[in-house]
């Protein structure tokens, strides 16, 4: 069995009060082949020092040892397999990156989506409860379906010079206390996974919702757009779904901070700002041309969700319903890390606008290729 392992030991830590504190603590990462798991390993290597904060009063810390396990090594839907892996590695933390992410396919395969996205997290949580390990579970903006709104007249929206002519409400980013309302089988399965984890672990659970994730690894919107822009003369991209693209490496940095500071609760994390898929595609092309990742531009046409779904039906495909607005508010996690952090994040990319995060990712993609 091939295991991806990274040992990272802090170079500047207060001397531990006991010899046991110097023994590395194990972090298991499920779904080793996922783009987020790969980002977690890459960011850990870049940081070069990860340590668990063991005592806030004495500032003692414990080095972390990381193991990323693929589905063949750890099937999160198999309770016996989970128990055997826990017995072998004795983790202090588990970061669950394993997921069923085929949003459209889940409409016809809800049983499998629920097995991976709900039963799997529940079984992990149960084993964590038995062993004393902590669990960080990754969830999605697709647990939301409607629009969180703010009162325009209370906020005094700047884009309206005359508030009397403004609409009564405008969409606002979702906060952690907003009621979920999934529109799809996928979103329902992700919400059920959250609920199962919280039911087992309660206030000790850590859940991170993110949105529109992309990165150097795996299948994602940025990679798809770059491939299509190299091979197609024109593209049609949805204009009436609004969210926020999030670079997997930036999310990985947030996750490591939450683990190192042993934070619990439900958190939202995405890049700053918001855009449509159409705006995202246009920005990908603009930056890719500037970096010579593309040799020439293609025509990008905006298209509505309804028209796109009709085209899919004509091809014999049915699409899951997606939220028209699913922007997440990251204020809670930013405030939490600002208060609790002892090891600074390597740079400011975590709290940057989505365009700046995209630029960082494309530059690294350019350097790697």
UniProtKB/TrEMBL annotation:
The GO annotation for biological process reads: dTDP-rhamnose biosynthetic process; O antigen biosynthetic process
Q: Does the keyword Oxidoreductase apply?
A: yes
Describe the reaction catalysed, as an equation. Answer: dTDP-beta-L-rhamnose + NADP(+) = dTDP-4-dehydro-beta-L-rhamnose + NADPH + H(+)
**Residue stretches making up the RmlD-like substrate binding domain:** 27-340
Keywords, A to Z, come to: NADP, Oxidoreductase
Q: Which InterPro entries match?
A: dTDP_dehydrorham_reduct, NAD(P)-bd_dom_sf, RmlD-like-bd
**Cofactor, how bound (note):** Binds 1 Mg(2+) ion per monomer.
| Enzyme Commission number(s) from the entry | 1.1.1.133
Q: Which Pfam families match?
A: RmlD_sub_bind
GO MF annotations for this entry? dTDP-4-dehydrorhamnose reductase activity
Q: State the protein's name.
A: dTDP-4-dehydrorhamnose reductase
